Amino acid sequence: CTVTSPRDCYNMGGSFRGILSVCGACPTFPSTEITNFDFEFAEPFMATGRNSAFVRSPDLSGSATPGTFVDAMGAPYGGSTNDVFGVVDRTVGAIFADDTPPGVLPQDVFGIIPADVTGKFFGIADLFNNIEGGTGTGMASAEWTFDVSGFQNLAVTIDFAAMGNFENSNSTVSTPTGNVTSPRDAVDFTFSIDGGPFMPLFTSSVSSTNTPYYQVMNAGTRAQYDVGAALEDPIRLQAGGDSVNLTIRNEFLRMIKTGITGGSTLRIRLAAQGDGSQEVFGFDNIRVLGDPIVVVCPGNYDGNNSVDLLDLLAFNADWSGNLGTTVPAGTLGDYDNSGNVDLLDLLAFNGDWSSNLGQACP
Asked: Which residue blocks in 168-322 are alpha helix, DSSP H?
């Protein structure tokens, strides 16, 4: 395939192969972009075009100021400035912004959004603030609904970035009032067609490699925090039905899920959980692709874009000349695609032709 940028390099299964890897064969992409949910235009959300609905809970969009979560008495948590779940930009906090040169903070060693990127994205960080009871349970969800009528062979692409020392299992936190469970880190995307069961779209896991992984984007130095503690456990994503886990870096990389059947309505659901302000995850540009469904014009036997007497003459010639024979399905008078030219073909054609006589075909 022609690689126009590093993020466009995929393997056969539909997952990004990674920076500096050699591109193999690309998957077959659907021919048309049905819609692109760009978070730059998501606030306030208005149903437009093919983007039908967008909901999230809790909605922590905008700037994450103290009071994002509240305790059992309704008072704000004093340390909740990094609680994020929603549509934000790099000004939401230092944990998302990478301000190494050409930014304003050369010593910065953490972040996923460089200084020259000012657009909006969907950010996730520190969902657990429930030690005293109240909100901030560690769980959050979002859902998007798209109109995909008229298309088949769907695919979904999303751009992902992340940074942090993520956890693959729950942990117990001791508090003055007892122990509470801090949830593992997960960001799982599923999809549903026309109200059917939700199926895996992008499923997360944590790679416990114990190897420093991230690079500060602009400075090129190894990313560290907390007095040099290495960020060793990155989060990974796997496209549904694929065997490849892609390790998500601290710069946006695109993944694709192909092979989604068509329908009228596509719903994409996100289930997120986690704890820790220095474990950030972001995504942008939910693109839905598909192949247009070709509208067949019943009775237009000669393919001249209208149903007329010429269709009747052409069919009768083929049908009478091959009656009682076996032919390649759909040819030479086999109107019902059975492979046999018989009376059923005549009845099927006459029904379509008489019902649509005089109609123009799209």
From this structure: 309-322
